[in-house]
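Hi team,

As requested, here is the filled-out complex form for the 2-phosphoglycolic acid run. I kept the field names the same as last time so the parser does not choke. Let me know if anything looks off before we queue the next batch.

— J.
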Amino acid sequence: MRSERTPMVAGNWKMYTTSGEGAILIDRVQDLVSDVADRVDVVVCPPFTGLKAASTIIEVDRLPIGLGAQDVFWEDEGAYTGAIAPRMLVELRCGYCIVGHSERREYFGETNETVNRKVLALHRHGITPIVCCGESLGTYEAGQTADFVRTQIREGLAGLTAQQASGVIVAYEPIWAIGTGHTPTPETANDVARMIRATIGAMYGPPAAVSARVLYGGSVKPENAAMFFSEPDIDGALVGGAALKAGAFSDIVHAAS
Ligand code: PGA
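And here is what came back:
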């Protein structure tokens, strides 16, 4: 039985697409997903340079597509060369922002503490964070996934108000599944999703646990999406590679509807 939670499929475009290429991709995606857009929250997360064009298309054509950034800095403004502040994303009508993706943790020194600062900063500005967590292959093979991910959630989601906690979106993405074609079984992914939900419940109470959305990410494709979405604690997907192809992304969105 499907829960009350609206499924979400978010495309993480990573460092792909110029703003012109992104505009074409959004047009194609929109044509293909409009029939289910009232049942699935569809979100695209272009690179920073593509946000303006994407925002304009979504606004002018009144597309039922959410817009997200892939990162943010936690200060409101200041001498932070190269950084982007939450209110700059607000201006571009970004409703969402990915935080703590494993690639940011690996290449840009993101920690649970900086993730938390970003999460709190986004909430101050009314942007919903999509908070990523997930273990390395070594941690998985050592059977330490639950402990590792629980700590990521406890530290990354600390300090929320009850209202903020009820809107939490977490993406569970095992690092070893990202871009590799390997995935955990849907049952294993659901076990971790359930643990994430329980952790949110322990931090913020049962209503937050029930309403929080947990996405699975890591090599989600049209061929495997439905299996993950049939699991009770998985509310959708954060999609990388397959989000760059309108047809594949649309198939995943339909699997969630
Ligand atoms: P992938 O990436 O779908 O290409 O595995 C997912 C992600 O990194 O969010």
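Two things worth flagging: The longest helix spans residues 186-204. The domain at 8-256 is CATH 3.20.20.70 (TIM Barrel).

Thanks,
J.
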